[in-house]
Amino acid sequence: xxxxxxxxxxxxxxxxxxxxxxxxxxxxxxxxxxxxxxxxxxxxxxxxxxxxxxxxxxxxxxxxxxxxxxxxxxxxxxxxxxxxxxxxxxxxxxxxxxxxxxxxxxxxxxxxxxxxxxxxxxxxxxxxxxxxxxxxxxxxxxxxxxxxxxxxxxxxxxxxxxxxxxxxxxxxxxxxxxxxxxxxxxxxxxxxxxxxxxxxxx
Length: 202
Ligand SMILES: *[C@@H]1O[C@H](CO)[C@@H](O)[C@H](O)[C@H]1NC(C)=O
Hints:
TM2, TM2D1-3-like, binds 2-acetamido-2-deoxy-beta-D-glucopyranose, TM2 domain-containing protein CG11103, transmembrane helix
């Protein structure tokens, strides 16, 4: 007799568990429906970003990754400080081996036409390194330096024509300059004349 009641009691407890679970679920569903209403009211306060819904489907143009943008090259002020101050941004010098040595600047970027986004489509992006690449490759130059250093070919190729002629006429400083330049090259003190960095794309 107690056994039968026990089963019924167990069933009753089980049912009330299910009931409890369902009502908790329903309640959290209701709360979730309420949450987006708060989200809709959240606006980005600054400037032209009013009416921008943070949880909306459109991303701010200025937050798009670089792949969606056409950015200008950093402006070269050629060490003219007044020109840089007038413009507000740009590079005084190009190049540098370590991050700390490289100047960084803003550049103007425009979103590609087919990309849909919110806000101004042309803006400035900061933190662009003042670096440029021309057709100077470290390994190729090192080869020239090792094999043709006595003809000054390494310096010719780097655009340092003056010293290259001197190196050629002295046949690599009778061998000494030849070796010195290899060391300078490896320690990165002999670099392209046009302040470009070594081209990383081999
Ligand atoms: C530097 O830039 C300013 C403004 O562009 C220009 O007026 C000036 O002539 C420049 N100075 C030199 C030395 O090039």
